[in-house]
Write a structure and sequence with these properties.
Number of helices: 6
Strand content: 15-25%
Order of helices and strands: EHHHEHEEEEHEEH
Structural class: alpha/beta
Largest sheet: 5 strands, mixed
Radius of gyration: 19 Å
Length: 219
């Protein structure tokens, strides 16, 4: 049996291997939580916002005057980027057994000195960042870079998380956001490990240990 994995499904594996196994084997699907429509809406308008600057050959204000962004530009292949952003298509890699790993990115930067690619992911949060906030997204960033390299693109050994955090509401009703750009070192071996672990688990017997979601699901 072949499987199709993504950062989201691998995250489920880490939460509950049994839910992951049952879902991937199409026996039972763990219920999705309440979708944060605000975050989805922010992602959509941020992509449009960044695309306007890309079309002008500029970086948006969030990235300008930031030392980590010297010599960087936004990825300038709109058609390819639209594929990479599409959650039904994304960046795809298939292993020798037909198992698929895919991921849909928010944006990509290019180092103009060496043409290496850099993942840029938008995050909307309701509260200021903690020291370890970025660690929750490590696997996601690792997998994106793994996929790019498997598709013969060179990437830097880091990625960016761009956080948007509500600051205040002006008398006009306009909501202001603070932004924080976090540079995160990536680990390709971690992505490969997670993929192999997932496939090994799926090719094994259904895990016995149950969580509150699958405790009453029989197999």
């Amino acid at each position: 049996m072949q499987f199709k994995l993504s950062p989201h499904t691998i995250s489920l594996m880490q939460e509950c291997p049994r839910c992951f196994w049952l879902t991937q084997h199409k026996i039972w699907q763990r219920p999705e939580g309440i979708t944060a429509s605000l975050m989805n809406g922010m992602d959509r308008i941020l992509k449009t916002h960044f695309d306007k600057f890309r079309d002008k050959g500029e970086l948006p204000p969030e990235l300008q005057n930031n030392g980590d962004c010297n010599n960087l530009m936004l990825f300038d292949d709109p058609e390819l980027l639209e594929v990479w952003r599409n959650y039904r298509k994304g960046i795809v890699w298939e292993d020798e057994n037909g198992n698929i790993l895919m991921g849909a990115v928010d944006n990509v930067l290019v180092n103009t000195k060496n043409n290496k690619l850099i993942i840029l992911d938008y995050k909307t949060r309701g509260f200021p960042l903690k020291e370890n906030t970025h660690e929750y997204y490590q696997n996601q960033l690792d997998i994106y870079n793994f996929l790019l390299r498997k598709n013969n693109y060179e990437t830097e050994d880091y990625a960016f998380l761009l956080f948007y955090i509500p600051k205040e509401v002006l008398p006009t009703g306009v909501v202001l956001f603070d932004t924080t750009l976090k540079k995160v070192k990536i680990n390709i071996l971690n992505a490969e490990y997670l993929f192999n672990k997932a496939i090994k688990l799926l090719n094994s017997q259904c895990p016995e240990e149950r969580c509150k979601w699958c405790e009453n699901v029989e197999y």
